[in-house]
Amino acid sequence: MTADRIARLRLIRSNSIGPITYVQLLARFGSAQAALAAIPDLAARGGGRPPQLATQSEIEREMETVARLGARYLFLGEEGYPPLLTETDAPPPALIVKGDVGLLDRQAVAIVGARNASAAACRFARGLAQALGDAGLLVVSGLARGVDSAAHDGALATGTAGVIAGGIDIIYPPENADRQRAVAEQGLLIAEMPPGTEPRGRHFPRRNRIIAGLATGTVVIEAAPKSGSLITARRAADYGREVMAVPGSPLDPRAQGCNLLIREGATLIQSAEDVIEAIRPSEIARPRKTVPVRDTVPAANAGDADRAALAGLLGPTPVPVDELIRQSGLAPALVPTILLELELAGRLERHAGGKVSLP
Q: With 80 as the cut, is the pLDDT of residue 284 above it?
């Protein structure tokens, strides 16, 4: 592991430094080492104390654990990192993976759905995943109960990737122990969190964005209107990916989310052929966005009055950054600089969809 990678992991594992901040720091300073050195000054400008940075010894222990588990890192901006994931608004700076990394070269379809899925839904998910795998597609899901488990089972022999909310060494749910080990041995297991991290509620939306970001299309099979599966589908829509849903009975609450998606414009699918037709594999656009992790971007100079004006527009309700630019009247290049300083000072929280708020 090079010094640059160690420095990157120190950034990633530090408080107040999320995926967006990480990219901005590397784009501004050109290297993780330079960004680490600059953080205390940036936090001071934002009016707070600098975040607690991960130490080199902590990172070295993590790296040793990853190696001992037979896993490896995939870093944003380096060869091997999933290209479609770089197109998302907050790609994970580093992934920890175990298994067949070559599966990421395939076009992927996500299959998600209810944890308390009906027997019919699980049967359909299993058969759909098997058919998509036989067609050469990678089936991605979240190793949850119900539809996720059925999808992994159906594609295990042909190619499946499981994205988990905790560390690469943590089994969740407990009854999926054998299934998770099988995915790691025969497919690919993917985690964003460091080893030893027990999954918490806040981790699952982060996992869902990875599932949606890896795939050219997401299929939802049974989901409640406010479920994690619909979060995944909406993230897929935000990324410009195909959203597909299996219709269900209006009398079944588990079908309400899918029927809602279809009413909102999701593609109704009933077979693997429908999925393949919807994602048009021969016309998949290659990634358009590159992530600047080495070339420096000139920093805009912000004054105290500029910081005060922008901070005054912030509140507990998340607001789009574009709206802050419009209302503040500040130069567009200046607003991200001030937001970066505020975040490092612990005075800003970022949300999905490019929104920010007071913590």
A: no
